[in-house]
Amino acid sequence: MEQNKCKICGSQSLAVFAHTAKCSICGVLLYYPYPDDDSQLLQTGEGKAWPREQVLSWYSRASFYNHTNFTNMIRFAMSESDKGKKLDILDYGGGGGQFALVCKSHFPEASIYITDISDASLLAEWSALQKQIPFMDFATDETKFDFIYMNDVFEHVSDPLFVLRQMSGKLKKGGKVFIDTPKQFWIYPFTKLVHRHLYMKILKGTVSASHLQIWSRQSFEMVVRKSGLSITKYEETSEYTMPADFYMKNMGIANPILRMAGRIFYANAKWLAKNKIICVLSNKCA
To answer: In what order do the strands lie in the sheet with 29-31?
Structure first.
């Protein structure tokens, strides 16, 4: 992958800052230099190389947030008209597998599948609710899906366009892809302008070797368009999967005044921060 070009739009107008590059054409914020492929994810955390006990502890802490978030995602992409149908649903990049529990509670007749770059991250507590497709077999697996869910996945992949094209080929006629992924919002340009030290901390906590791109709406729509999919439903919302102190720890924020401000911001985030894109995609010819 050419390091002097934006991997989303191909522009050479990249502003490199610390470990990031911002494209002045499409607006995407990228981890920089780009990793060669997704294998780096297996070494950089996010649960991919953790022992089982640590993975279980992680999902136990996140489970209340995830349960609500998964319910919102399912109801955003699907409706009561899908009840009673024998649907095939894929949780792509599903990690521990909690999504299947929430999805089955809505649609017990559905068959839930999961695949993840770390096959071992699927927890035994949830494995019986789904069929696992080993990641190395996924490209050649012939299963087609009515719905594919990509929750907090699209920011992790090194080649988003390749992944979207692959998802397009995995859909049944009329099938849909749901994506939930981080988006830049006002705090990025604001802190860069008025408080560079805090901006560095935000970059540290949100852009990394596993969080490879933080989208702008323009860059997201561009990669969807290139993939041959089309956006049928789109919203920007406020969504978090851990409590406020988790994010401040990741950012290295220790100052008690900043931590208090962070907690106040977090408590009011639904009014202050549209930090996520949620959308539904379908094949253009569908």
So the answer is: 14-17, 20-23, 29-31, 213-214
Which value, to the nearest 10 degrees, does the dihedral of the CA atoms of residues 47, 51, 56, 57 take? -80
Residue 151 placed within a domain: yes
Q: Find how far residue 249's CA is from the centre of its chain.
A: 20
Instruction: State the helix-helix crossing angle for 244-251 and 256-267, rounded to 10 degrees.
Output: 140
Local structure of residue 183 (DSSP, 8 states): B
Q: Which domain holds residue 47?
A: 14-283
- Flag whether 79 is in a domain: yes
pLDDT digits (tens, 9 = 90+) for 203-248: 999 999 889 999 999 999 999 999 999 999 999 999 999 999 999 9
CATH of the domain at 264: 3.40.50.150
- Please check whether residue 184 is in contact with residue 218, taking contact to mean a CB–CB distance below 8 angstroms: no
Tally of domains within the chain: 1
For the record, the structure tokens of 221 come out as 């729509």
Name, in order, each residue with C-beta under 8 angstroms of 84's C-beta and a sequence gap of 6 or more: 109
Confidence of residue 37 (pLDDT cuts 50, 70, 90): confident
